[in-house]
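Throughout our pipeline, every protein is held as a single compact record rather than as scattered files. Nothing more is needed to write down the fold, since each code stands for a local backbone conformation. For reference, a complete record is included directly beneath this paragraph.
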Amino acid sequence: MKISLKTVIKLLTLLIMISNAKALQRINDIYIDRLNVFDSTQSDWFFAAPLANSLHALTKKYLIEDELLFSKDDVVDYDLIYESERNLRSTNLFTKVNIEVDSVSEYYCDIYVTTQDRWSTSPSVLFGTGGNATSWGGKIEEYNFLGTGTGIDVEALHRSENNIGWQGRFEIIQRRLFRSEYTFDGSLQANRFRTEQDLSVYKPFRTIATEWSYGFNGENHFGNDFKYFGNASSELIEFHSRNLMAWLAHSWQRKDRVFATLAVELNDVNRQKPDSLFRQAYDNTGRIYLAFSSVGEDFIKTSKLNQWQDEDLPIGGWGTAILGKTFALRPGGLNLYYLGGQGEKSYLYKDMYLFGQVTGASCFSRDLGRFTYEEFFGLGFYRITESILLAGRFRQQSVWNWDAMRQLVLDNDFGLRGYELNSFSGDNRIIANLELRLFPDINIWFLKTGGTAFWDAGTVWDQTIELGKTRWHNSLGFGLRFQVMKTTGPTSLFRIDFAYNCDEKKFGSIIFTTDQLFSVFQKHDYRLPEMFGSEFDYE
């Protein structure tokens, strides 16, 4: 039997048409299944679960719909489906998110979106120790007020650090203000030494297809900064600082995105002490930035890195180049040119992950460099088994020609466990942490339990001192980890560490707090331009 060339061409054309029809499969319908915190089909269901569910407002359906990047009758785009799942997970409203595609014919499919709410109301008694300081108080966190996705945080905390005493904090966050593309974030924190008022309203790059971002951040901080000395004593520096930043940014391309950002920042500071002694870099200075950036990343759904629950591990890179100009707003302000840059890259090879970030910046007056800053930040892990992880962090920060007050602290809060708070401070800092994390599948009802063994090392020093002449400090120890599986985020994991201070040859106080000391990975997100190196640890 002979087949003519014309017949072959017709058959090939038909096959191509069928293949294209499948590739252009359209969405027939979208089904959203919202599961409550406790579900009767799951193993953690118990007799009081209906009562617990009745005390929780189920996430509104429109919140889920707002995060979906596809609609009925759209052509199926799996990139948008995967991104929608990541976006839902990043809202921190759910413990589980799953989107499945079910073909009903060669030309149509149904999409099933399943979410399970987290327990969003967290009244808690706060108690933390570490570094010879204790804090205690109460806190109410609501991540999903009345199911609307509104976050409210109210806290009252008594802190022994620096004899601060009682501290209050209130914050409200609306991820989509009135179901718009705008995010609202307002907070107030106050103690007897310091008051901080912050407000942000902005349109973020919410998806990989978002082309424009703009907004403003406003800060009004006043009270006292602590200036620390080598013997752990301190001096109060009265100040009042107002800062305002506005920006407009544009993005091109969905993959390997490119950004251009124009931003203006204004800073007005009044310090009681003489400027010559306690002036910080860029006080009373306006800044104009023009930044060109790019980011590219893929995501791998995984778990047992920082917690037992699912996490999206990003693999890719980020880079930015910033051109800037500063100008004086008040006497003491600076008129300088600014050049800054940051680049980072992450890799995953089988069971090993590596992340590296390099930052550099300097100001110029004619041919003289001022406020020169350099930083390296590294992360990594090796998955020994499914439940055993070796994780590490390294951060090095250095400055040159920094003729202004600068303070980086090395203590229990900043990664050197077992040492008194505010023990060491300087212009430059190196901190290294190594942890062996254990994530066994040990359940106590809806509580997961695990542990860690760790080693911390670090040093701080002033610009005038050579690195080889600085003193290093070390600590060793072990800890326990507990995670509540009915909620998510940093406060869902509790950390208890027992650290041995290698300087004093003894165990320090027991460290009890929330969240891991550090995340083993970092997201490659778009970031606003900034004056690198202006970080100041005030407590």
User: Anything to note?
Assistant: Residues 443 and 449 are 7 Å apart (CA to CA). The helical segments are 5-23, 49-54, 61-67, 78-90, 275-278. The chain has two domains: 26-117, 121-514. Residues 17-22 have pLDDT under 50 and may be disordered.
